[in-house]
Amino acid sequence: MTSFSAFPRDVTSTIPREPHELWEPLVRPDTVRRVATARVVFANHGLVRRDFPRLTACDDAGVERWLLARAGVVSTSQTAADVANTPVDARGAVMPAWRPPRYGRATIVAANFDEATGAARGLIDVKGAGVAPGCTPARTHHASGLCTLGELLREVAYQMLVDRIFAHAAPDLRTLPFYGLLDLGFDVVTRTFERVPAGALARRAHRREIDGVEIPANDSDRARLLLEIELFLRRYGVTSANRGTRFRVERHAGRLTFSYANEALPDPDPPAYENFDRWLRDETLPLECDVVNVQLTRDEDANETCRAQLVDFGHFVTQPRFDNPLAVAVHDMPLCWGTTVRTTDERFVQPDRRLCVPPSLWGGTRPDVPRSRSDRSTGWASALAHDVRAGRIDGAAAHAAIVCRVDATAAGWPQR
């Protein structure tokens, strides 16, 4: 696994090593237990050794055993119910973990403990580790507490694609490195009662915005950066905006009505309503407006060689063209509707035919229908997950399939 795109590029940053170094006052205590059926699908052995030097002398198998012992876990709240999953074979002692705000399906676990004090030394962020304390799992996507293995294989593929795009034309942008992908060995039960393999993604610990408030102020440096990154990715046909992050405006009986992600929004106050009415006067209604969903680690994780570090790629999709205006969600404007780029704006971009990712590999040809029915990468990753679980392919083959997909995508890009 020595090809350039084998894993996302690393970025030297101030990695939080202890819970207080998350710099998050609202972090909550959590507890997890080992899952006896978990196994490592593939791991970034070099990154694990680099971040945890005590493993320098370990061979790859030793690194994977160490990673499995720490990241092959689910929360005790998840093991207390079996509504959203098949039974979990959780064994061993209850171990401490930490849950920052808005960590619905992720928790942070200790990589090691100080033998003298029992304090955590080194942290691992585990996505797919179950619901938080006091929460009950439900059979809906973001309420189950879990991630499917197919979902995470797709996320890894998109992360590696985005990282390759950055390496091609924006080297000061990076993605958050991950340590490995795990098959947890039990199944997620969907709302249609389908059983699909559960997985977990072990990522480098990092800092999010304080209190979990990730949307910036309008016209702030961060808002401009989010918009810049989204518009840059769109040149390659990649977007963070999908059907789940979209404003919609209609006119009923002469009045504007607003919704976001198919949920009705309250009417803005009269001055704001008048501004919207004037702004929309030249638009054909109903109007749908895509919303940027680029997620970044906190500014403190950047440095002189890395302007921003992206995290979470499960919602990314590809499209052959873009037909809706694009907005940034902000916390200080009515309806959280911030700076908007109309389709007639000179900043609005369409995919460059020399750079656009192949629809035959990534899909995304129908932005108006659910991703599960229109996105080729979703079906591909789901099939890959079932092959991994059934033992028809091993983890190395699964990793190679992702690398080949990204390599094939980038093969035709012009040299910089």
Average per-residue pLDDT, rounded, comes to 91
Can you tell me the number of structural domains?
Answer: 2
Approximately how much helix is present in the residues? 25-40%
Low-confidence stretches: none
Strand fraction equals: 25-35%
Q: Which structural class do the helices and strands define?
A: alpha+beta
Structure description:
There is one protein chain. The protein has 416 residues and is α+β, with helices and mostly antiparallel strands. The chain has two domains: 4-212 and 373-410, no CATH class; 221-294 and 321-355, no CATH class. It is 26% helix and 25% strand. It is built from ten helices and 19 strands. The two termini are 25 Å apart.
Gist?
With 416 residues, the chain is an alpha+beta fold. It contains 10 helices and 19 strands.
Give short descriptive properties of this protein.
9-stranded antiparallel beta sheet, alpha+beta, 10 helices, 2 domains, 6-stranded mixed beta sheet, 416 residues
Layout of secondary structure:
Layout: E1 28-35, E2 39-43, H1 45-51, H2 60-71, E3 73-75, H3 76-79, E4 90-99, E5 106-113, E6 120-127, E7 147-148, H4 149-169, E8 173-175, E9 178-189, E10 195-204, H5 221-234, E11 238-239, E12 246-252, E13 255-260, E14 263-264, H6 270-279, E15 287-291, E16 308-310, E17 317-318, E18 326-329, E19 337-341, H7 359-362, H8 371-374, H9 376-390, H10 395-410
Parallel strand pairs: 8-16, 15-18
Antiparallel strand pairs: 1-3, 1-4, 2-9, 4-5, 5-6, 6-10, 7-10, 9-10, 11-17, 12-13, 12-15, 13-14, 18-19
